[in-house]
Amino acid sequence: MKTLKIFSLLATVAILSSCSNDDDNHNQEIALSESEIPTEIIAYKTTHFPENEIVNAIKDTEGNVVTYDIYLSANFELEFNSNYEITDIDGISKLPDSVIPQAILDYVAQNYASNVITDWELEHNHQQIELNNSVELEFEMDGTFIRIDND
């Protein structure tokens, strides 16, 4: 009976250890040197944030989903999907106009003239921005205004 309890305990520990290892293999963050950052991401950064230096770059893998988080000077954070397409831009100051679709820039200029866009995110079927007054606005993919996001 004592041998059976020890065997059961060892089996339980082995199972828990293998589950823990599976999580580690499927969820990992890898720091990238500038030379390891995909060229498409470097090109985007150079085009839209030429004055900002790369502070940190992380390749994040969760299951089968890969994203790249690029941290720039002046507190800008860029997130790219596995196809190196921009999906999220966070800042504490005005984002460059070149990263915001013209229809959204026009809407903000007309309706929130005293504010600036500090965050932009591509959702599944729409875009979302945040203004420096913490108002979040949602837009269709073509830039048509949907609503103020109160979530």
Automatic annotation (TrEMBL):
A Pfam entry, by short name: PepSY_like
InterPro entries, per database record: PepSY-like (IPR021533)
Protein name: Putative PepSY-like beta-lactamase-inhibitor
Keywords: Signal
Gene3D superfamilies: 3.40.1420.30
Domain Putative beta-lactamase-inhibitor-like PepSY-like: 67-146
Keyword Oxidoreductase applies: no
Keyword Cell cycle part of the UniProt annotation: no
Signal peptide (UniProt feature, chain positions): 1-22
